[in-house]
Amino acid sequence: MLALADSFGVQLEAWGPFAEAQNGIFSNHVLTAIANAHGRSVGQVILRWNIQRGVVVIPKSIHKERIKENIDIWDFSLTDGEMENISTIDTIKPLIFNYNTPEEVKRIYSIPCPD
Q1: C-alpha–C-alpha distance, residues 9 and 112, integer Å
Q2: Alpha-carbon distance 68 to 34, whole Å?
Q3: What single-letter DSSP state applies at residue 14?
């Protein structure tokens, strides 16, 4: 997907890089092992993985500590092996909004906009 987007000059962004904490992402054994090895949180590992792949991330939090944590990802890097291990858990399908199904697109577009 990244290579295809790049070939069209499209910048991918992860507007929900934590997938709304679905599917146990914050307790995933691959992510927790990598986070522990770096003395980081799983959230920081997720953000760093995306950044190293060239994906723009837009993490959301209302908690001051997590906002600071989300910014504090620039002084470590993931190894090639860690990047590959994380890639094995990437389902390459959206967990929040599946834009690949006509039913979901119709559902979203049928939601009335506030005046």
Answers
A1: 33
A2: 20
A3: E
